[in-house]
Amino acid sequence: MDKGIKLTLAGLALGALTACSTATTRPQVQDLNAGNARITSDTYTVQRGDTLYGISWQSGQDFRDVARMNGLNPPYTLQPGQTLRLDPNTQLPARAAGASGTSVSSGGGVVATPMGGGSDGSIAGGSELPDWLAPDESAMAQQQQRTRQAQSLTTGSGGVSSAATGAAAAAGLGPVYQEGSEEALAETARNAANDSVEQVSSGAAQASSSASQTASQAAASAAAAQAEARKAAKEKAEQAVAAAAAEREKAAASVKNEAAKVEKGTNVAGETVKAAPAKKTYVPVKNVDWQWPTQGEIIGKFGESESVTGGIDIAGQKGQPVKAAGPGIVVYAGSGVRGYGNLIILKHNDRYLSAYAHNDTLRVSENDVIDAGQVIATLGATDAERAQLHFEIREDGQPKDPLKFLPKR
Hints:
It is a single chain. This protein is an alpha+beta fold. Among the domains are: 34-85, LysM domain (Membrane-bound Lytic Murein Transglycosylase D, Chain A), CATH 3.10.350; 122-222, no CATH class; 298-404, Glucose Permease (Domain IIA) (Distorted Sandwich). Helices cover 37% and strands 14% of the residues.
């Protein structure tokens, strides 16, 4: 009985070990790169370390389109916290407007306002006197009394002689009123009002003249500033032309020197003379004859995880060659796209792009024309847990399953 129990327990233990061995034959790879999550919203808030190319790539758009939508110009500098529009039909939130109204400096123009707050037309005409110019009745009575007393002391008649009045009128001096009379006081008030109107009009004319001079000075300053700007732009353009000419002369001199070395017989015996490589011209292919970019086991398939952009992951050894999956031109070579490490993007034609991420070293530069199967990088683990190649194919900017394009193997 004890022997049977022991045999049963031994069988169960053996089965458990076998199950564990089978479950661990395939390594479990988990991509923890949250940085290469796809951007699906209509707007995006820039984070520290982002680049315009990276944001555009992760949202499936051309970086030039995103730049145009947001009014960005080279070198496309971004600031953390900046909001970018990723859909041309989306409007960004309006910035908070400043306080309404216009601030006027204390040194502004002078505004002429009639005294008393009213129009000066009636004063100038002399037809009516405003309340603030009307004489005081009690003061008038006192003045009349003092005048009568003075007249009684000097003339004894209490008034101005009719002869004097007639003489003044004949001389063209205007009407003569008895001193202290209501007519005299009213005439005095009218004269004072006319003087006030003349002073106000003179001040307004002076203010208008000052404003005109200020406007003329501002126009002259603006014209001078525009002339300086045109002069600076012209000088900058001339400097750029001169710099370009100097670069051309330098390149021509370098080619001439190399030719002179060959003509002088400086080639080393036993070494093969290498001809200068001819400059390639990018010609988009009509149909891409896709080929595998590297050898290795596929450890991540398209659409397996929503946290990573569409593509496949191919395991390999650090340093093994990464080749172009088709002919094209390098449109990006660098490490500025978050979550992709050292990245190369090839343009094959106006419809297809291919991407090669997590490289160890890059063997090509932007604008290099590449042949299919040419080594463009070495496999690595930049921004990845292990040595692998993340490979993508984009059709019209949208990720596609590379296994539907690559040949069966």
